[in-house]
TrEMBL record, chains A, B, C:
<dbReference type="Pfam" id="PF00378">
    <property type="entry name" value="ECH_1"/>
</dbReference>
<protein>
    <submittedName>
        <fullName>Enoyl-CoA hydratase-related protein</fullName>
    </submittedName>
</protein>
<dbReference type="InterPro" id="IPR001753">
    <property type="entry name" value="Enoyl-CoA_hydra/iso"/>
</dbReference>
<dbReference type="GO" id="GO:0004165">
    <property type="term" value="F:delta(3)-delta(2)-enoyl-CoA isomerase activity"/>
</dbReference>
<keyword id="KW-0443">Lipid metabolism</keyword>
<dbReference type="InterPro" id="IPR029045">
    <property type="entry name" value="ClpP/crotonase-like_dom_sf"/>
</dbReference>
<dbReference type="GO" id="GO:0006635">
    <property type="term" value="P:fatty acid beta-oxidation"/>
</dbReference>
Length: 221, 221, 221
């Protein structure tokens, strides 16, 4: 479901569960992998990547439908995943091999940088078209990471951004062809792996203090 | 003074009072029209547009000069107009047929998107050259809607932006020739009219919570 | 060490102390010059500029190493310099003749606008590579002045931006060849010198209220 490998100084965390929706098992595996990564000493950086045409489609709506009484607890755990990435003591790069939708798009935003595949796949926050709104934590994350006009358009219209459009809108920083997405992300991460992890974590945690507070507070605000 | 018509799913609210300054009568008519619009059920979107060379020049300084004791009450009503647009339960597009100055520029910013006329007309916050400052509500609206560097330049220098400059600065999203401004805005609004109004309103209200709080609080902070 | 001259309506404050690090003497001279400038009546604008290949390299780490017990007091004084520029009752333009690093880069950000030399010199926040973090005041200043994605990249990676890269990233607004940096800044400042200083100061102080509060509060938060 989740595979953690090391390529030089770079941890590569591959999500390999179809649409990579956040099932409880997926979340548990991701949390465990980030526990391992966070213990790193010395140079290090993290790349996350999906498989096939999905980076991640976000919340596991099937599981949620069958477990509605656990919605708040579940959202708290998703928020926690974002918060862990935002406070991870090393640089992070998302390799967007495919769709990053809804909670999966927010997962991408929780990384320092992102490389997005050019020929296929969208970044999209489709909540408005699903009749859903954003939790205070998710809203804080999106607003902390996206230019104001982009956050507005993405949240109000549910626009699907191609890689080129996502660069223009300030959502991702780089694009690459399918085969080059992961290598480009790993190369970028490797170039940053020499940064002192503790310093990176402290600067990032300070920078996103309000978003982290929203993500670690009550899920429904 | 104000004319509300419906073009398919799109409400078109035309301001037709010369410079379209916010006289008490103008505000009353706008409030009434937005009351009608807000009651819409089913698909819907709003376009506002002015007439001739003015979208709106903002505060009615003549009326204010004769009613200085009502300044705070008056500003509260102007703030309320912005707040109603920010929380309107449907997508909104401003068709900037001409000048959008001062409070009229802020009115444009209270819409989801704006289309601006290319050959004539400026977006301008001239307060600095009038010896005026911005109320906390106005400042919050401007800062919530404009890129930081643009808010700074617009507020500190009173720069007049042409349509092309306004796109580059992130003030408006699209430009059109005079005859195409309203059709382009209506077409854009129609493309968004299928969004669930309640969801759009909730997402936008959450997104601009701090600005809405400033706009609905005491006018002088 | 610091030379204050007047060129028409424009005050030109030249830093002439090598790397222009903020020694206590440098800070005292800058504070005195800004006292003089702030007393201006009538048209006025401020340009600051360094000498040779340095605009300013920021904190005086040598002095700090010898006076570690005065770190908080010292930082408070540096914060105060930024706060004075942010609240100065006239337009301000930084002429970046050379490197603007760390606290020197933040000094540039405390101006309304900046012109940067094209062939040599970087804007850089190298704190992450020095194992340093940002004080709440510095972080608030950077976040208030830079686009979100730029603040992130600059603070997390310590990237060195050339003039062209700094324009693209929204750090500075204009570039010029070495000999033209100061004249361009003076010309720009002169074009803004007619603004009412009190109004400019009030608008800017309102606009950066939270950053000013962070800069004038306890240095370590």
């Amino acid at each position: 479901m989740i595979d953690l490998q090391r390529d030089g100084d770079v941890f590569v965390l591959r999500f390999d569960a179809g649409e990579n929706r956040f099932s409880p098992d997926f979340l548990g595996a991701a949390e465990g992998a980030l526990d391992t990564v966070a213990k790193n000493d010395g140079p290090g950086a993290l790349v996350t990547v999906g498989t096939g045409k999905f980076y991640s489609n976000g919340l596991d709506l099937d599981w949620l439908g069958a477990n509605q009484d656990r919605f708040e607890e579940y959202l708290g755990r998703v928020h926690g995943l974002y918060a862990r990435l935002l406070s991870l003591p090393m640089p992070t790069v998302a390799a967007l091999n495919g769709h990053a939708f809804a909670g999966g798009g927010m997962l991408a935003l929780a990384h320092d940088f992102a490389v997005m595949r050019t020929d296929r796949g969208y970044f999209c926050l489709p909540e408005v078209d699903l009749g859903m709104t954003f939790t205070p934590g998710m809203s804080a994350l999106i607003q902390a990471r996206l230019p104001k006009r982009t956050a507005h358009e993405a949240m109000i219209t549910g626009r699907r951004y191609t890689a080129e459009q996502a660069v223009a809108a300030g959502i991702v920083q780089r694009t690459a062809e399918e085969a080059e997405v992961l290598p480009a992300a790993v190369e970028w991460a490797a170039s940053l792996a020499g940064k002192n992890g503790g310093t990176v974590g402290k600067i990032r945690t300070d920078l996103y203090g309000p978003a982290l507070a929203a993500l670690t507070g009550p899920a429904f605000g």
